[in-house]
Structure to design on (1164 residues):
């Protein structure tokens, strides 16, 4: 085993793998948490509170999210800069997916920058979260998000963000599978792609519904799906809010 | 490529134009600026791009009546097996010998056909490009079988019909460069490309070639190696020989995952 | 460098050139490989059928001797027999060597090399890689040579064209002068020996099945410097090729084998859509003239008849083409049996031959003649060797199918050690430094300058067209002495007009005009060799057919034609053919059966081995159909390589 591996080779492989683990995995956890908003304020705030009690939280946050995210996005932009898109001359589905992967990546760079500064650090002036981010304020988390999402523009931006993430991740899984030589044949690739498209659709639906859950109980679904709602509402004491 | 038995009446040029305009991207010399010239040729049946260029070459006068230099391009076999006459025709890379004027007029409309040199290689002059680097890539991946010598050592190893057929598909690569031209990842020779990867795969599949697989894989884990593939898969769409280029890439990905990436686990 | 190791220059990077390069590099010597195109794009890629070698893996009692007999018989006994025998003995080893190099030959179920029958032979003797064996063999050699290139043993000069040899005062070859086709820079290459492997001269006929690089220019240059050119008049013409505006492409003979009918409109001016012409107004000229054989007459007869009909002006639309009609056969059957070859027609013509009659015409295909060489591939110029289609040694008056690839490799494998042996023993003296290279380079430079500054009214491409038309009309299938004479006069006139050309490219960078002008001059020289050789040979033998002399005349013409250059005209002489191993016998195909060879091989009588070798049988067609059909079906049914099929289908949808 004396194969020399170049820096580019290792970085690309690292880029591929960080997209799946931890970032992809984190996204699953993230929309799972978000979806708790369907069950109301308390459920969501409790979930946020639970995150606050993860041991070694700072360590997990830095090494499990921030560093991989910074690497994945910066190196991703670097990769995108190498692309010479030619979708109109070579008008094929996979060619457009290729372009789309880069476009969503670049969009996500800006979206996530906003999202993190906004809800994690409360650093976007003029927004509800300014100086009062969700992170660290488990008791007010739901209200903060709700207040922001009442602004249709921000809600739309977030929904776009969810869509881009869902696609970028799902297609990223497909790319990982082919780039690591797991899915090889044309037919296998086709079916794997269908599965990934289905996954993207699923992630988008769940993520979008979670977003709507902040402005409408149970999101877009009939409220019957979220039967615990009222009970949750009642047992939840009025959250103190700072102004 | 029609496999059906019924006669699918091909879309024919029902109302051929009197003349066809050939718009050619010219360049006098490597490194100089490109410019366009348009030539008009009388329409005839059964023209292909090569024969049109041959016509223009005889008496190079532009549409405007200006005497100019004859366009330069490469051609050799004209049967789509040597790969040399590849150029970008109406925006798409292909061999000019098998590009029929009738078909181009039917599919793209109008009566103008645009010819450009491939954009990813040094443009020597007019439609002629220098693809030397593709042959260099073959050196990088050791795309050969290590023979002890050419003296008589009897037959080679046995091989299944299936393997032989798959290898045959790879062996048809004529180094035309269509895959690189259409690849959105490839520019400025930053990526070794599907052609070389497929040739590495071709040799890796051979029982003798397998012995030296590590050397070939090492050529593919360099800075310009296989990880630069962006999976746009245009290569397999434009390959005139129908080579399963993506299969080569992904099979090689697997070999690399097993041998290179996790090879240290076997230390 | 050259002071210790030897330096061999090889001109041409096709199968023969690469085979020689490989052998030289393997022996530890240095190679300068000069090729007009990147070697991977050489004309060898066009060979499709396969490579012959009597391995006898099918238990048929085949043997190199039978292969030898077939080759000599097929060549109408004009080939010197010793090298042919040597080649046939080496053939199995050559195939095994390619097998070891990883050529994807088709396999049997056991995983061994598969062999197929070819050209009416009774033996499975032809190894093949799908439908394009030449391509695979060439690439395999290219890969091996590239390996030596990385070791610094081979220096490739791709995009360089040889202009002349460098000869010293004693007419010993000491290297060559070549031109860079991009910069037009000239360079003199010093070499202890030069091997020519430049292929055939098809471009002399304007349009042929040859590649555009097959001009024979380098060979002609050597001829003009004193190399003997042998059997130039033997040019193989394939009966059914697809006429194109740019070139002729082969249409497999199996189209006739499957029931294709050849016809022209009875009224030559009939421009109706062929489907609208009723049976009664069609002239099935082969069926009319040869009721017994119909469209399945031997190749040479088919070639002659089609040619004759067009020469009379009865071709379709008054042009040089006749219909090869398959449309009366069920389209499904055609797809199954001939799918792949019909697709080729569709790709280059745009018509679906299952529904529209194909237009075909005979096409110049191969030159049996070439530089004279002895049995060690040495030309008459010391230090100059030749191998492959550019030498004359193997095929006699007619080449057999699937023999060209083996002869190329054989030639290269013999030329290389022969050149090394010569180079080891030749005295170098001061030839490297005494200025002969510089002098030759200057001479070539002056020729270039002369052409560049020439101001005349002639157009080089039009001269080429005229030469091609005259040669095709008069010096191919059917030859008459008066027409040959007229052609020679025409060639002299064209040579004269050549002196008044002015190249139409003011930009000399990478220009095609100057190289073409130089090739054209050389082609005109070689055209005269072919024409006068044909004029002088008053007999019919192999591919050479004169209606006025319809029989083979061994007494006067069982001889090699040798042409030597002189300023006025080629000087022809004749050399006896060495026929000591197999007694010449009449080639008789009209009865459909040839007499078995009387050989020293004991199995010959028992095994029968009566092979029908028809004149005009050659490499491409037979090979094509069988595999393509076979492979095509395999792939369609997804039996073994499903991926391809899926992809094709997806493509089709988009």
């Amino acid at each position: 085993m004396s194969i020399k591996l170049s820096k580019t080779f290792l970085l690309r492989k690292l880029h591929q793998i960080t997209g799946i683990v931890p970032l992809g995995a984190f996204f699953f956890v993230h929309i799972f948490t978000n979806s708790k908003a369907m069950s109301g304020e308390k459920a969501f705030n409790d979930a946020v509170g639970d995150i606050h009690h993860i041991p070694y939280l700072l360590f997990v946050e830095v090494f499990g999210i921030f560093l991989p995210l910074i690497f994945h996005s910066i190196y991703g932009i670097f990769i995108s800069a190498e692309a010479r898109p030619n979708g109109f001359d070579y008008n094929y589905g996979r060619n457009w997916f290729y372009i789309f992967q880069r476009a969503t990546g670049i969009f996500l760079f800006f979206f996530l920058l906003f999202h993190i500064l906004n809800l994690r650090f409360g650093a976007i002036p003029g927004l509800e979260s300014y100086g009062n981010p969700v992170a660290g304020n488990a008791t007010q988390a739901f209200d903060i998000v709700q207040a922001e999402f009442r602004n249709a523009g921000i809600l739309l931006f977030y929904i776009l963000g969810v869509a881009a993430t869902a696609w970028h991740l799902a297609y990223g899984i497909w790319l990982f599978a082919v780039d690591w030589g797991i899915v090889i044949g044309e037919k296998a690739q086709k079916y794997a792609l269908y599965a990934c498209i289905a996954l993207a659709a699923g992630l988008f639906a769940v993520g979008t519904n979670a977003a709507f859950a902040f402005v409408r109980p149970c999101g877009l679904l009939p409220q019957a799906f979220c039967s615990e709602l009222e009970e949750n509402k009642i047992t939840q004491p009025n959250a103190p809010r700072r102004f | 490529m029609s496999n059906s038995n019924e006669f699918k009446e091909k879309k024919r040029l029902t109302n051929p134009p009197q003349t066809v305009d050939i718009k050619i991207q010219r360049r006098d010399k490597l490194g100089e600026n490109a410019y366009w010239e348009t030539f008009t040729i009388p329409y005839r049946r059964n023209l292909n791009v090569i024969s049109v260029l041959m016509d223009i070459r005889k008496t190079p006068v532009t549409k405007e009546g200006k005497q100019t230099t004859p366009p330069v391009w490469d051609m050799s076999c004209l049967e789509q097996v040597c790969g040399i006459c590849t150029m970008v025709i109406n925006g798409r890379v292909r061999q000019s010998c098998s590009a029929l004027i009738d078909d181009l007029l039917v599919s793209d409309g109008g009566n103008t056909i645009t010819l450009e040199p491939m954009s990813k290689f040094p443009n020597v002059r007019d439609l002629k490009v220098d693809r030397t680097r593709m042959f260099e890539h073959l050196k990088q991946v050791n795309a050969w079988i290590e023979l002890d010598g050419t003296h008589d050592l009897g037959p080679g190893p046995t091989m299944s019909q299936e393997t032989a057929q798959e290898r045959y598909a790879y062996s048809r690569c004529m180094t035309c460069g269509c895959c690189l031209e259409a690849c959105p990842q490839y520019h400025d020779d930053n990526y070794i490309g599907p052609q070389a990867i497929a040739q590495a795969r071709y040799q890796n599949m051979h029982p003798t070639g397998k012995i030296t697989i590590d050397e070939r894989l090492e050529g593919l884990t360099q800075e310009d190696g296989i990880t630069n593939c962006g999976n746009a898969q245009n290569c397999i769409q434009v390959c005139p020989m129908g080579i399963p280029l993506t299969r080569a890439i992904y099979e090689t990905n697997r070999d690399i995952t097993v041998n290179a990436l996790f090879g240290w686990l076997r230390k | 460098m050259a002071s210790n190791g030897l330096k061999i220059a090889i001109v041409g990077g096709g199968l023969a050139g690469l085979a020689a390069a490989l052998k030289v590099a393997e022996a530890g010597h240095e190679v300068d490989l000069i090729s007009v195109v990147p070697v991977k794009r050489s004309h060898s890629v066009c060979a499709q059928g396969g490579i012959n070698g009597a391995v006898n893996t099918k238990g048929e009692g085949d043997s190199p001797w039978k292969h030898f007999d077939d080759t000599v018989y097929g060549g109408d006994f004009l080939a010197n027999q010793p090298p042919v025998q040597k080649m046939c003995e080496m053939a199995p080893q050559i195939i095994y060597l390619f097998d070891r190099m990883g050529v994807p030959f088709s396999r049997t179920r056991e995983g061994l090399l598969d062999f197929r029958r070819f050209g009416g032979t009774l033996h499975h003797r032809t190894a093949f890689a799908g439908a394009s064996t030449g391509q695979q063999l060439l690439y395999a050699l290219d890969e091996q040579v590239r390996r030596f290139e990385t070791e610094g043993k081979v220096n490739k000069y791709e995009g360089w064209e040889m202009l002349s040899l460098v000869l010293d005062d004693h007419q010993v070859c000491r290297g060559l002068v070549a031109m860079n086709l991009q910069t037009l820079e000239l360079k003199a290459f010093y070499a202890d020996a030069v091997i020519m492997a430049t292929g055939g001269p098809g471009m002399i006929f304007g349009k042929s099945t040859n590649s555009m690089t097959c001009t024979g220019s380098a060979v002609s240059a050597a001829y003009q410097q004193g190399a003997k050119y042998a059997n130039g008049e033997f040019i193989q013409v394939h009966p059914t090729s697809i006429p194109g505006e740019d070139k002729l492409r082969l249409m497999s003979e199996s189209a006739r084998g499957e029931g294709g009918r050849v016809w022209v409109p009875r009224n030559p001016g009939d421009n109706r859509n062929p489907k609208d012409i009723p049976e009664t107004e069609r002239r099935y000229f082969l069926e009319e003239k040869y009721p017994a054989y119909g469209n399945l007459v031997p190749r040479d007869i088919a070639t002659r008849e089609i040619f004759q009909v067009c020469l009379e002006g009865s071709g379709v639309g008054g042009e040089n083409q006749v219909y090869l009609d398959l449309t009366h056969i069920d389209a499904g059957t055609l797809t199954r049996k001939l799918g792949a070859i019909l697709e080729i027609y569709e790709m280059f013509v745009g018509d679906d031959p299952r529904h529209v009659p194909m237009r075909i015409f005979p096409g110049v295909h191969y030159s049996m003649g070439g530089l004279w060489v002895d049995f060690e591939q040495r030309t008459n110029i010391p230090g100059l060797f030749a191998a492959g289609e550019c030498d004359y040694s193997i095929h006699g008056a007619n080449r057999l199918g699937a023999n060209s690839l083996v002869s190329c490799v054989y030639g290269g494998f013999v030329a290389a050690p022969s050149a090394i042996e010569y180079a080891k023993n030749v005295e170098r003296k001061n030839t490297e430094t005494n200025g002969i290279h510089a002098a030759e380079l200057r001479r070539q430079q002056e020729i270039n300058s002369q052409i560049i500054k020439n101001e005349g009214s002639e157009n080089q491409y039009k001269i080429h067209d005229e030469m091609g038309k005259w040669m095709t009309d008069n010096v191919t299938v059917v030859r008459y002495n008066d027409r040959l004479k007229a052609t020679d006069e025409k060639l002299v006139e064209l040579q004269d007009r050549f002196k008044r050309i002015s190249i139409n490219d003011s930009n000399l960078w990478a220009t095609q005009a100057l190289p073409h002008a130089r090739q054209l001059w050389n082609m005109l020289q070689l055209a005269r060799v072919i024409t006068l050789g044909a004029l002088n040979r008053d007999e019919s033998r192999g591919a050479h057919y004169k209606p006025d002399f319809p029989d083979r005349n061994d007494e006067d013409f069982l001889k090699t034609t040798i042409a030597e250059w002189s300023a006025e005209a080629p000087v022809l002489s004749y050399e006896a053919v060495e026929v000591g191993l197999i007694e010449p016998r009449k080639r008789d195909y009209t009865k459909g059966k040839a007499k078995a060879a009387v050989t020293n091989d004991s199995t010959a009588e028992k095994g029968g081995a009566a092979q029908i070798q028809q004149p005009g049988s050659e490499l491409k067609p037979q090979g094509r159909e069988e595999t393509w059909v076979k492979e095509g079906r395999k792939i369609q049914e997804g039996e073994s390589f499903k991926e391809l099929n899926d992809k094709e289908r997806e493509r089709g949808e988009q």
About this structure: The mean pLDDT of chain B is 93. Chain B touches chain C through 88 residues (CB under 8 Å).
